[in-house]
Design goal:
170 residues; mainly alpha; 2 domains; two-stranded antiparallel sheet; 7 helices; 2 strands
Length: 170
């Protein structure tokens, strides 16, 4: 019959075989999950690209991908101007949020150039027509900020905005 050491060797080899099988199954499952996540990621990126193309085609612009590695605030400002030649992101102006930007769009003010040319009393009329909750905003600096953005003077704009409080001179 079997001697005592052979029994330990068989048990040990069986244990090793089970561990190797379990490890291979775990790796196989992990590879499958990675492949599934990669497919999911590719699908989401394709959907995002399609949405960006649709958005920019509505604006009459050709789609251009955001350069990778740009995280600097100045680069984001410059990138926005490159992408949207017909509509600027007016929210870059300190004190203008999404709702006020929408009011400006309704008043046919779409670009920094448009905003820089408008007189402050006209801006106040736009805010008044929108309702009393917009009267608390002070648009005194908005045309000058827009002019700086239009001219691409991002460092100067950023420095000045750090001194403002919601678009107001402190």
């Amino acid at each position: 019959m079997f001697s005592f050491p052979w029994l330990y060797l068989v048990a040990w080899l069986t244990s090793v075989a089970i561990i190797i099988w379990w490890y291979e199954q775990s790796l196989k499952n992990l590879r499958n999950k990675i492949i599934d996540e990669k497919h999911r990621s590719d699908f989401i990126e394709e959907e995002l690209a399609a949405c960006r193309k649709k958005k920019h085609s509505k604006l009459g612009n050709e789609f251009s991908e955001k350069p990778s590695g740009e995280s600097d605030v100045n680069s984001l400002f410059e990138h926005q101007v490159v992408i949207d030649t017909q509509k600027d992101d007016l929210k870059i102006v300190e004190g203008i949020g999404p709702k006020i930007e929408k009011l400006f769009h309704e008043a046919s003010i779409y670009t920094f150039a448009d905003l820089s040319k408008i007189e402050i009393p006209e801006i106040k009329k736009i805010l008044e027509r929108a309702g009393s909750r917009y009267l608390m905003h002070d648009p005194t600096t908005w045309p000058k900020q827009a002019a700086l953005a239009m001219e691409g003077r991002w460092d100067e704009l950023k420095k000045w905005q750090s001194e403002l409080d919601k678009g107001r001179i402190v």
